[in-house]
Design brief:
single chain; alpha/beta; 240 residues; Rossmann fold; 6 strands; 6-stranded parallel β-sheet; 9 helices
């Protein structure tokens, strides 16, 4: 497995993904609840970042990206939702100010439960241009809500997102990310198609029942291998 290559581990390995409780996403809040709290969002499209406000999340890239997008169109807002790690939000605000886009950016702080779901429900695109991400549970939550996602190829479910047609995967390149955002903002049908594919991907792979099935299969394979090894060992002893 490529994840273990740097450690030169010879034993076989298996990665089982994280999951979500599907019941939490079965009855989403009504459209408009989040927008109602922020009147400036009326009639605007929302690009949502939902994660920690932290250096590894690629927010320096996102600030440049949104500046580029905002200079070309006036129908979009950036919403940043998540806890501020060690005051990093001040840097993000400064970058957005330099880009002339702070006035069209909203920092909500951390949202939980219905408030988080309302933000996901009312958004048009989810974006996470991380420099590194072990998994990306926020990506799964966004897909569960039917959002198309734009993620970097360092978010470690990018292969599944790409193969499933649930979003757009980019490098750490601000122009690539800006083009991906513009493409989705301009194409409602594509947003809806990717959103539906994302929901299907979550249902098939990232709910706790599906994760449990995969874990059971892994343990069964391990037990079968162990039984086969014991059988071979016993045959060798009989031969001697």
């Amino acid at each position: 497995m490529w994840l273990t290559e740097p450690f030169e581990i010879k034993a076989p390995g298996v990665v089982v993904p994280n999951g979500i409780d599907p019941s939490e996403f079965s009855h989403l809040p009504a459209h408009g609840l989040f927008r109602h709290k922020y009147p400036e969002l009326r009639g605007k499209k929302i690009v949502l970042f939902l994660s920690r406000i932290n250096f590894k999340k690629g927010l320096d890239i996102l600030a440049r990206v949104f500046g580029e997008v905002a200079r070309k169109r006036d129908d979009v807002y950036l919403v940043l939702t998540g806890p501020d790690n060690q005051g990093y939000g001040a840097k993000v605000r400064a970058w957005l100010q330099e880009e002339g886009a702070l006035g069209r950016s909203i920092f909500t702080g951390m949202l939980l439960g219905e408030e988080k779901l309302a933000a996901l429900r009312d958004s048009d695109i989810f974006v996470l241009p991380s420099y590194t991400e072990n998994f990306g549970i926020a990506v799964v939550e966004a897909m569960a809500c039917g959002l198309p996602v734009i993620i970097s190829n360092k978010v470690n479910i990018w292969r599944e997102v790409s193969d499933g047609g649930a979003g757009i995967v980019t490098d750490w390149d601000s122009h690539q990310v800006a083009e991906a955002i513009a493409r989705l903002l301009d194409d409602r049908n594509l947003r809806e198609e990717m959103g539906e594919r994302g929901k299907k991907l979550v249902e098939e792979k990232y709910t706790w029942p599906e994760v449990a099935k995969e874990m059971i299969e892994v343990y069964e394979q391990i037990l079968d291998s162990h039984r086969a090894n014991r059988f071979r060992d016993s045959e060798r002893k009989l031969d001697h």
